[in-house]
Amino acid sequence: MTLKDVKEILEAEVLVGSDQLEKPAKTAFAADLMSDVLAFAKPDSLLLTGLTNPQVVRTADILDITAIIMVRGKKPSEETIKLAEELKIPILSTRYILFETSGRLHARGVTGCIEKVGGET
Amino acid sequence: MTEPLNFERSFDVEGGSFQNAGNVSGQIKGILKELGVSTDIVRRVAIICYESEINIVSYAKRGTITLTVTDEAVKIETKDEGPGIADIELAMKEGYSTASAAVREMGFGAGMGLANMKKYADHLIITSELGVGTYVRMMVMNFQKILHPDLPSITL
Fold first, then answer.
1. What is the predicted ipTM?
2. Does domain A3-112 have CATH number 3.40.1390.20?
3. Chain B CB contacts of A37 below 8 Å
4. Which of B11, B76, B111, B126 is deepest in the core (most CB within 10 A)?
């Protein structure tokens, strides 16, 4: 699956990175707590979140996240968009709630970047 | 034989500057990539720096983050002018936090920062003085290079 498929499945609006829709998307992590994202997310995953501040982009950059999917129709601030453009991190916005977003992607083959915590590093 | 790596630079971090939080970590990540440090170590150091930077921005008046890179390790030292930590053992506990609402709105302040730093560092030391500030030293070891027989000998 690519970001283009993700966009279609989630009926999402591409806010940053319309030139990067061919990027592969196989795994994902969902959280609103950035420290949890830093603790558990893996590189080259999608980040599904309801947060919209620039720290989401920073966190995504630190972890080499493929793209940020903002759920519940959230729209990022201008600062967030500017930083994402600068760091070349795609942002998609979907009106689906986090549960639906995760479920729809999982049903189409996207898996969690980890299944559960404990034991992994 | 290649020249031994010895890189050091300090960065200033301004307390309360939430908008810029992460700037220094982004720069450090770029430097490590340029130095050719392995992806896994770059990521671990970047996470450690980012949580450190968030801590300085969240709690201190100002601080510095010093990056030292050698063949055998990446060292991150943070020093801040701030309130200090009353009980370090308690502060290290996952879930314990004294963060403000502003910090929580950014997606931090859930008592995971120090735990994350400990998780990703091979070595971590904290000293703190109330009303003065906090010093943290973290090391991420470059074990692969240390153990690799083809590389120049390395003294630890």
1. 0.87
2. yes
3. 107
4. B76
